[in-house]
Amino acid sequence: MYRLRLLAVPLILLLGLSFLGCDSTKELVEFDFEDTIEIEGVDNPAKPQIKICVGSMITPEEGYAYYKRLLDYLGRKLDLEVNFVEKRTYAEVNALLKNGSIDVAFVCGGPYVIGHDEFGLNLLAAPVVDGKSVYYSYIIVAKDSRIEKFEELEDKTFAFMDPLSNTGKLIPSYMLHEIGRTPREFFKETLYTYSHDNSIKAVAHGIVEAAAVDSLIWEYKYKTGCEDTLQTRIIRVSEPYGIPPVVARPGMEEEMKTKIKDILLTMHDDDEGKEILGGMFIDRFADISDGSYDTIRDLRSALNDGASL
Length: 309
Hints:
It is a single chain. By secondary structure, the protein is an alpha/beta fold. Helices cover 34% and strands 21% of the residues. The strands form 3 sheets. Strands 2-1-4-3-5-14-6-15 form an 8-stranded mixed sheet, covered by helices on one side. Residues 1-42 have low confidence and may be disordered.
């Protein structure tokens, strides 16, 4: 029913990579989590297909089995062959949505706002977690760190997640903006990890002293007993923001958007759908308005549309 294709995503902390605000690079530990995986479903090239993207940056490693099941569920309900595409960065995902190379994607609030405002990205639905469709940026440090407050991170090493990430870049940059600072001159060194899993690992293994991560992913990993997460602690929680939504490319047929949306909004009503959602720690999917993401727009505006990021 589906073709699962995980495009060579280097779930690796390529350390010595992407250090900002410093002239030197550092040789750091490399974590190789998984090679490319390709699983073939029913081989029926004549059957209509839909391409759905789930970025490695938004999915806990432990959650892939449930995303696979979710896409299988969608494929059967739609009677379509599903191509599951994974990309490493939000910029790649937005580019593919913009040119129509993928149809649907699970994205962060930040990339949604950019995609909606720049090329007409469409909202389909959003998860409800613990009764709410919001999430937070967690600033984390090692469990045994003496750092207690965000302001104590001055001249420390820090991991951002992705340049377009709301929780992993925009929010911590705004936290600095509020105290009249910028990431480049506040932190000793910074790097991009390109997944929240990697950011948690970077802190747990002492590669950086702190990081900004998605609360949903940190909580998922904490609840499932991930050792790396247990070796970190939270020193600051941001204000709530609109939760990462499911989106559709511009120009998708209204009938198809309605079908996908209806499946997502009702999947908690049947046993299989409820089990899949439970494994993802999602109560259900719900309607969400574009206005739920206006606070992200406010952050971008305050930071001169990203110029001070």
